Amino acid sequence: MAEIKVLTLNVWGLLYISKDVEERMDALAEELKNGEYDIIALQEVWVYRHFELICAKTKHVYPYCHYFHSGFLGSGCASLSRYPIIDTFFIQYKYGGNFWNVFYGDWFAGKGLGCILIQHPLKEIYVFNTHLHASYPNDSFKECRTLQLYQTTQILKHMTRPNDAVIFCGDFNHTPDEIGIKALSLLTNLSDTYDIASSKISLCHTINPLSNSYLSSEEIPSRIDYTFVSKHFQCTRCDLAMQKIPGKSINFSDHEGYATTLIFDPKVDSVENLENPTYYNMLKTLHKVIMEGELRANKVHRRKIGLVILLVLFVFMPIIFTDIFCSIFPSYFYV
After folding, report:
1. Does 2-273 carry CATH code 1.10.150.20?
2. Can you give the pTM of this predicted structure?
3. Residues tagged active-site
4. Phi and psi at residue 273, in whole multiples of 5°?
């Protein structure tokens, strides 16, 4: 058995939009180079030179790193490892928002599920990293996130075998009581490290306006950043991490980091249980939720298409009617 420390953190790295982004990225790289963790999953690393900065400053402790390119902006997901990375892949989600939501940006990022396969001395470990569609005021993307998480369960089931060691980190933008999180636990045999931790804080809010200088007081404290693991891992401790930058009044990000200490036992056998009736009940519930979201999305799409058609008619119909009128009554226009 071996101890493995894992960190997941949404770094809030939007250039020109996120506050103090250059200062925070530099401080993040300085903090990570202390080598406290073995595996790190980052989200919202939107600027590639920030990824290069972090890799350059931490290469003595994390010589293996990978950025998951996707979409127009890049997926924002990056992973660092103390252990050799022997393979990588990235699968983009089928539905990642709408292109006309320009100020949201999720569609342009091409969000999806990234994976690094690391060569741990005891056994290979699949380390997945994702950032699901963000939530916004009057949120209409709840079903989108549920669909993305369901697609994730399908990828996990088909890309790994029941006896493979799996760590799944990321910003899920789901609270623990939502259907997507329940489905992930039930359909994949993965466990939320917070639920199985021997030692943990009572309120593990990774979004918390009380402790974060970048959040509005109207934000609701919640836990939306997770690390799920297969049966090969026991979680001895989970805690918040990467909060205030040492010596400064600002935070590393608008999220709190989520750190876990795992005990890795490669000899544990994990068998998929498909006989559980709740498995199929969950599939039915997911299907209902996703279909309701699809119907709502189709209504929105038809409305948008209708508006585009009206706009086109408004612009071009006067020109068309003028040409027709001129051809029928030329004397009105020509002397």
Report:
1. no
2. 0.84
3. 255
4. -105, 105
